[in-house]
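Session log. Operator J.P. requested a structure for one protein chain; no other inputs attached. Running the standard single-chain path with token output.
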Amino acid sequence: MIPPINIDLESLNFITIVPMLIAIFGALTILCIDLFAKKLDKSLYIMLAILFLVVDFGVLYGYSGATRGFFDLMLIDGISLLAQFIMIIATILFLLLSLNKLRFHDTAYPEYYALYLFMIAGFQFMVSSDSLILIFVGLETASMALYVMIALHNKSNSLEAAIKYFTMGALATAFFAFGSMIFYALSGSVELGVISQVLVESEFANYPIILVGVVFMMAALGFKISLFPFHTWVADVYEGSTASLAGFMSIVPKIAAFVVALRFFEIFIAAEDTVVQLLLYGVAVLTMTIPNLIALLQTDIKRMLAFSSVSHAGFVMVAILLGTTQATTALFLYWILFLVTNLGGFAMLWINRTKENGAFSSDHALEKYSGLIKTSPIAATMMGLFLLSLAGVPPFALFWGKMYLISSAVNADFIVLALIMAINSAIAAYYYLKPIVYMFLKEPIEKSNIEYLSNATTPLKVVIGFCAVAAVISIFFVEPLLEIISYYVQISGY
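Structure written below.
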């Protein structure tokens, strides 16, 4: 007779999964309300989604339980909390962009906001575990929701974007599964801590097989982070998505993937594995440089921002390569400042949807912004400010992130890498200045029916105003941010 299995519920530490359950419960609540009360105003669903995210944030902020929980699958350390804070705040800000004047097909669906919450729950699971199985489940939960959200835009290029993203995502999923299988075969575990211990104790026996697993995992994470050469989907998917959703994709999915990459590659960085370090070095340099050069040729602002976001991901991969406490702190500082700046930039594209021949266009060609300073001076000033910040021009927000990241490379004796980062920043400044030249130095298009700020509402203006102020006065809160980030990074042992 098989003895009964006794599980101590208290030892499971259920509080570790409460934040994710709040997001899932919020999504189910929105679906149930729509089931019984059709045709309610979309503002209700936006406010409900934001409310559940605020509660989620509050639970995380007040979290004081054990680091491990739920059969040791959950890992709520400082890195996990920090990543979840960034994701939830970013999601709330992007949700506020849905409070727009115009009625769009996708944002009118209650399911759209339920998918937002399901997606966030998936990302929260990703950053709150070192089990490859739970990371995989979180990744797929978030990805499936995001595929549907892109397709909901219900335009031919949106459906094309969703199909491309789904196809590439399926390939990345297969890579992740194969990589996990290899490391399970080598170590007998899917937990990164155990895998690290087994590999170190065996002195990295079967090294060629280990490298195959690393390549598979690099490819899987490279798709989510949009690393070279896995970035080819980015421009088309961003172009087919709404500006607000494209901005969201440039921030939130990447921070989740960065945390997974940080946990995974830390195994090899700590062991000073030269081959993996060279692999990360090459990928980081190529990801910074190639999309930067492609962005120089773009004539559409949204596609330009898509390639620039890939280049920024390359910058952050440098922090994972360095593996120092300063570099890990720089990773989160850089991404917080990038969040503020990129949110502002994509919000300006969202608010400046142009109207041509009675239809609203998603085309953001540079020519359409010619002479914007004369037709809409506030919009031109705001857009110029965010572009200067993305270029890393002092004293705007992203300058401090780049400076701190480059200084961590110098302190880790990666002088050549720091020089490459500085050169890429200079290259990026050129294409960020192109739209500014069109807006400030060219004449407006004659006999144009373009209507700017047609999507403006008070919530959108507040979000853009917040981003603008934060970008300008960032020098005053960089130091407090560093102290907060350092605290969470150090309690995680990175």
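Operator note: The two ends are 47 Å apart (CA to CA).
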